[in-house]
Design brief:
Layout: H1 3-29, H2 36-65, H3 74-97, H4 103-120
Helix pairs in contact: 1-2, 2-3, 3-4
Length: about 120
């Protein structure tokens, strides 16, 4: 692992920590029943926080799977997977706020994301 990879991991984890602090402040200070916009802001912040948290974890998993060799495109793949996780999390929280989240909808979204990621990450 090179120094730039270490710094990128630490920087993204730092950004994730800041976003988790913002999620905590929002959860403590605002009530989504009194301020409906707070729920959607919270959903976006939770999606961002979880997405940023998972990007370095995905990269480290790829790095370990490739026997500690960093290939070109590994960061792009990790960022894309973190984006998927963040989008799905934000969507699930927003759907839960509207009380329309159900098991078939959740399974459909997860399967759709898995198939999209499998299609995009085929190694040629």
């Amino acid at each position: 692992m090179e120094a730039r990879d270490r710094l990128a991991n630490l920087g993204i984890f730092g950004a994730a920590a800041v976003s988790w602090v913002l999620v905590g402040l929002l959860v403590v200070t605002r009530d989504p029943r009194q301020d409906p916009a707070a729920g959607f802001v919270g959903a976006a912040l939770m999606g961002l926080a979880i997405g940023l948290t998972t990007v370095p974890l995905f990269w480290l998993a790829i790095f370990g799977r490739h026997r500690r060799i960093a290939y070109r495109g590994d960061w792009v793949r990790a960022a894309r997977r973190g984006l998927w996780v963040g989008l799905v999390t934000g969507l699930f929280v927003a759907l839960r706020l509207q009380s329309i989240l159900s098991l078939p909808i959740a399974v459909f979204v997860v399967v759709l994301v898995v198939f999209a990621e499998l299609t995009l990450s085929i190694e040629r």
